[in-house]
């Protein structure tokens, strides 16, 4: 009898510990609900990813992740306060609690994921580092850049990748370092360097900022893996799940054929996947302390991943970037989200 009572006590203690952990894990969500908005760290201005328009409204792939989190947690995608951060500032701002989530073209690496007290919540853009040059330079390959002066942004993985690439190919270079992406492109345009290196998505975004975009070209070489995605603090599993599944919902929505334009009609569908998505069946939102229609709100107010890609960096944008590896897995790309069931 005593053994059974002891076992029951142990189970009770474990349950209480789990409940206490769940309560502690909701700190960020509680803070977001109390202040009524999500504080989202973004870039200082990168077209297609996080950039204010002429009216000061933030737009881009990374911005849409912030908006998705706000739609899921607060039911309103507009309830976001955007905090522009340089590459050097971004992790400190997240660690200190200045922001709730970092969604700023940030590469997921082992060191960042294991030593900074942070968690990457997924990948919203698969990228790789490349090089942009002036066409007048007459260079066709990165292997012709021996001795070049290279404009680069400090506090980024591009610095390390650049050194690795040039050392591997027994070439030398002179770094010209800037704090922001805007400064790098101005330095490039002013002739302070022969080449500008960054993630290829950034190169296309920075190219359209040139007075004469046709004067520059992006070389074919891609020298690194740059999986970009949102980041949260470690130790808040509930918030981590919310950010992770907000992104997953956008990806799953595209796979299900759901868009901001058709989701109301699709709610009438008998498709089990759609019914689970909109909260009529399945896990709903209780596991994340969200309303049952949290995913519906994301698509209704922000759209699917496909919609976000096309308007921000794809055919509906000045960048005109091809989907490539950012296509769905079913269409030859890398994009794959766990099922919502």
TrEMBL record:
Residues 37-266 form the Solute-binding protein family 3/N-terminal domain. Keywords: Signal, Transport. SUPFAM superfamilies: Periplasmic binding protein-like II. Residues 1-24 form the signal peptide. One of its GO terms (biological process) is amino acid transport. Belongs to the bacterial solute-binding protein 3 family. PANTHER family: AMINO ACID ABC TRANSPORTER PERMEASE, AMINO-ACID ABC TRANSPORTER-BINDING PROTEIN YHDW-RELATED. This is Amino acid ABC transporter substrate-binding protein.
